[in-house]
Design a protein that fits this description.
Elements: H1 2-17, H2 19-36, H3 39-64, H4 71-103, H5 109-125, H6 130-155, H7 162-239, H8 250-278, E1 286-289, H9 290-300, H10 302-307, E2 311-316, E3 322-325, H11 327-343, E4 350-358, E5 361-367, H12 378-381, H13 402-412, E6 416-422, E7 426-434, E8 449-451, E9 457-459
Parallel strand pairs: 2-4
Antiparallel strand pairs: 1-3, 4-5, 5-7, 6-7, 8-9
């Protein structure tokens, strides 16, 4: 019944789109009939057609407002469409019959053209419902055949007469119209079947994606507890509180500590991706002073920058830079972009952070002097598990999730991120956020900042 309901909806939606086309044809037929035959007869036929159109419009609106999928309701609406089809096709046929009667035995060019045009119109636009299509073509075809047959019968015309030629021509044209109707019907049914197949496959894909997300959430949560214990133990040993570490073992513990940090970062980022995709990411929007937030984020990343011998500078324009957002997540965005700029910079390079107003938005620019991003990699940069150097031997560590999470977090803040780059000369990332209309009396205070994977500053927000 769901398929039949879709077919009926497609039918009435298509009919409503062609409403004014039909009115134009009715008006044209009325004017021609009135001028060359009788205005009284023409307007009578036009009034009958308008009445059927209003009935069609009433049924169409009821079907478009139809909510339930009950079998009884479906059949009720299908019956109404059948009755409406009989009325409207009969009204058009009446129009043609009246004109043919006024002409008397002749070629009947005008009424037959009206009928054949109506039949072709139905073949092209009534293919959604086979019952309606067959009814309409049946009525138009019967009347189209009746007109020349009636002339032959009344005049007892011999086979050599032009009236027989008219009849045979009508039969030929009707055959072409029926073939056209079959072609349109098959195309529609094929598309309908493909849409049904796509719907089923989409449902399966969504179910698989949900299962994947649930599995990912379960695994990351289960890994987090033992990893925390392992990392804590390694850090405790590495700190020397349990005694001096032998010189041969010190490098091993340093590697273990570094890799446990990287694994912890990966788990945190996987959890963020899972929460964003499932819509479970919790935000606490508050008024945020971007100027203070930028300065805090630069201070927080200072240790990581120092480890790479990179200097981070700030340039903040004058003015008010109040935005509404989750302070912790905004700090996370800055940490991702800044760490990315530092990671791809050489020793003694400078990363410049600029805050300025662009129209009604605040723009944070992070400019580095690193390796740059090649052309054609614009979309790849923000994909999951992606880095510009995606080879197995890439020189730069990381999960490839940071910029993807950054973009999704900015989307949730109604913000955006983009970049410009030149190979060998560096890259500039632009973060745009909507400014608040009125300055806020209280702004968010900096959240505690903890150190994430590879010593990166990550805001202490719930993952």
């Amino acid at each position: 019944m769901n398929r039949l309901k879709k077919q009926m909806r497609d039918f009435v939606e298509g009919g409503q789109k062609l409403f004014w086309h039909r009115q134009f044809m009715f008006v044209g037929a009325t004017l021609l009939t009135g001028y060359y035959f009788s205005f009284q007869i023409a307007f009578f036929c036009y009034a009958v057609c308008v009445m059927t159109e209003l009935f069609d419009l009433y049924i169409s609106r009821r079907i478009l407002g139809w909510k339930d999928d009950g079998r009884t309701t479906t059949r009720h609406f299908l019956n109404l469409l059948t009755i409406s089809t009989v009325f409207s096709a009969s009204a058009v046929s009446l129009f043609a019959l009246v004109i043919a009667d006024q002409e008397g035995p002749s070629a009947h060019f005008t009424p037959l053209l009206f009928l054949l045009a109506a039949a072709l119109f139905a073949a092209m636009n009534n293919h959604q419902l086979v019952r309606v299509l067959m009814l309409r073509l049946g009525i138009y075809g019967s009347v189209t055949l009746y007109i020349p047959i009636h002339d032959i019968w009344v005049t007892r015309a011999p086979f050599q007469s032009s009236l027989w030629l008219n009849f045979l021509t009508v039969v030929f044209v009707l055959y072409i119209i029926v073939e056209s109707a079959v072609i349109f019907l098959r195309l529609y049914q094929r598309n309908l079947s493909q849409m049904e197949t796509l719907r089923v496959e989409h449902g399966r894909a969504m179910a698989a994606n949900t299962a994947k997300t649930q599995f990912l959430a379960m695994v990351t949560h289960e890994l987090r507890t033992p990893l925390t214990s392992i990392k804590g133990s390694i850090d405790l040993i590495d700190s020397g509180h349990l005694g001096d570490i032998p010189d041969k073992m010190a490098p091993v513990f340093a590697i273990a500590s570094k890799n446990s940090m990287r694994l912890n970062q990966l788990i945190n980022e996987l959890l963020d991706v899972q929460k964003i995709e499932s819509g479970a990411m919790v935000f606490h929007p508050v008024p945020v002073d971007l100027a203070a937030m930028v300065q805090d984020s630069v201070k927080a990343i200072d240790g990581y920058a120092g480890g790479h011998s990179v200097t981070v500078t700030t340039k903040i324009a004058e003015g008010d830079f109040q935005v509404s957002g989750d302070f912790g997540r905004l700090m996370q965005i800055m940490a991702n972009v800044l760490s990315n700029a530092i990671k791809f910079s050489d020793e003694s390079d400078v990363v410049e952070v600029t805050l300025e107003r662009v129209g009604e938005r605040a723009r944070i620019s992070v400019k580095d002097e690193g390796i740059g991003i090649p052309e054609g990699a614009h979309e790849t940069v923000f994909e999951k598990f992606s880095q510009v150097d995606a080879s197995d031997r890439r020189s730069y560590g990381g999960t490839g999730l940071g910029l993807n999470i950054t973009k999704q977090l900015l989307n949730l803040h109604n913000g955006s991120i983009d970049f410009t780059s030149e190979i060998g000369k560096g890259t500039t990332f632009f973060i745009d956020l909507d400014l608040c209309d009125q300055p806020a009396e209280e702004t968010a205070q900096p959240s505690p900042v903890t150190t994430g994977g590879q010593g990166l500053p990550i805001p202490a927000v719930g993952a």
